[in-house]
Amino acid sequence: MKGVRGRRVKTIPRVWQNHKTPTGRIYSTYVRALLDRLGALPKAADIWLREGGLLVVRLHEDEADLERCLNPKARRVSQASRIRRRMAIARTQLARIEAKLEALAAEHRASQNPWDTR
Hints:
Blueprint: H1 22-38, H2 46-69, H3 77-111
C-alpha cells in the first residue's frame, strides 16, 4: 500500500555503492526475500537486516573458498576445516539474526492498530 501514512515502505539497507555486483545481488536477493516473508519491520530492524545480508554474502564466499580448497590439486585440507568451522558459526549467527527479525516483525505487527486508517 504505497502512500498510506503510517506504513513503512520496504527498503533494503545500503551496504555497497552498487548492488548490481554479484555480491550485491546475493545480498539484495536475501534481504528482499526476508522482507517479503516478514512484512513491515520497524526502522530499528535495518541493522539486523544488513547484518543478516552480510552474513549470507560471507557464507556464499566461504562456500566458494571451500570448493577451491577441496580441489584435488589444491591440497589445503587444514584450511578447509577452518572454513567449515567458520561457516558453522556464521550459520548459527544467521539463525539468531533471523529469529530476532521474526520477533521484531511480530512485535511491530502487534503494535499496529488495525483500526487506524490514516
